[in-house]
Amino acid sequence: DSTFMTATAHTNIALIKYWGKKNAFLNLPTTSSLSLTLDRFYTTTSVSPSETSTDTFVLNEQVCDATRVHTFLKILRTQLGDFPPLHVSSDNHVPTSAGLASSASAFAALTGEVVAYLGLDLPKETLSRLARRGSGSASRSFFGHFAVWHEGVDDDSSFAESLHAPDMPIALIVAEVSGQSKKVGSSEGMMRAMTSPNYDDWVKQSANQFDDMTAAVANADIEKIGAIAENNALAMHALNLTATRQPFTYFTDETQLILSLIKDMRRQGILAYATLDAGPNVKIVTTKAQAPEIVAALHDYLPQLKLDVAVSGPGITYD
Ligand code: DP6
Question: What sign results for the dihedral spanned by CA atoms 275, 203, 23, 9?
């Protein structure tokens, strides 16, 4: 019975970031991006007919504001053909504290679930195009392991697909930084970043890094993957600081401390590189073998720091 079917999508962490839109209505990015899907964090979603005349939304068993869900379902109605109001129920297995984005897994799971509920069978690339309209990073969460989102020039050409990559012992440590950084949503943060005088250079540099990253992934060169990811992320965060209109940073003192600890570890020959998204949390690219010693070292300095080790995760699944 399709009514009881659920879709599960995992979060992804961009190693080459999406940080700017050339078309905000269609969510067309200014750059192509490349990500690793994580095993530990995911969203499971089911839909059923709404008992009211509007779309309704329950997240982790709590009734929530359905505005963003409804706006997205309206887009799906224009793209897939009209359907009656839905009740959307999601369970987020993503730390709810600042920084680890759940919109990627959430909009991917919702898209997959609605399409399956309607009895449609669409390729993942098409699903990714649809989910992009809900949240750009969601376009990459249909695919396991590595994915690329091609920036494209229009609705049709902007979609994600799997990046065929060898198995590799890559691990990603998520350090959940306590305390609050400035709360700037990703859409708003990108708009500000685009006012940086360095923005055009960042876009050009990102294209080169994308090519280098693709090669590093094909070679399963985790050291290079980490190094490129760190450069790309720090350049993204430098845009926020140099914005002409409302400069800002997601970094807290603890973020900075972790970044310097990672540098120290590197001097000791440990493979550890940082990437950061729209929040203060630090994600550390390393190998499965070295993850435990990095966790132990960070725990020594910051006993309160919450640390999770994630590895490569699967694409969307249906139960
Ligand atoms: C820093 O996908 O959350 O995580 O499309 O406006 O919903 P919207 O933005 P969103 O942005 C993610 C930004 C990022 C980098 C990335 O995931 O590529």
Answer: negative
Output the six-digit token pair for 240: 């926020």
CB environment 187-205: b (16+ within 10 A), e (fewer): eebbbbbbebeebeebbee
Q: Percent of the chain at pLDDT above 70? A: 96
CB atoms within 10 A of CB 240: 22
Tokens 């759940």, residue located: 102
Q: Do 42 and 313 form a contact (C-beta atoms < 8 A)?
A: yes
Neighbour-count burial of 138, counting CB atoms closer than 10 A to its CB (0-12 exposed, 13-18 middle, 19+ buried): buried
Q: How does pLDDT run across 123-169, given as a tens digit for each residue? A: 999 999 999 999 999 999 999 999 999 999 999 999 999 999 999 99
- Nearest residue CA, atom 12 of ligand 1? 137
d(CA 57, CA 198): 40
CA 135–ligand 1 middle distance (angstroms): 7
* Assessment of whether the complete model's pTM goes beyond 0.90: yes
Q: How far is the CA of 296 from the centre of ligand 1 (A)?
A: 30
Q: Any residues with CB less than 8 A from the CB of 36 and at least 6 apart, and which?
A: 12, 13, 15, 145, 146, 170, 172, 312
186 lines ligand 1 (CB under 6 A): yes
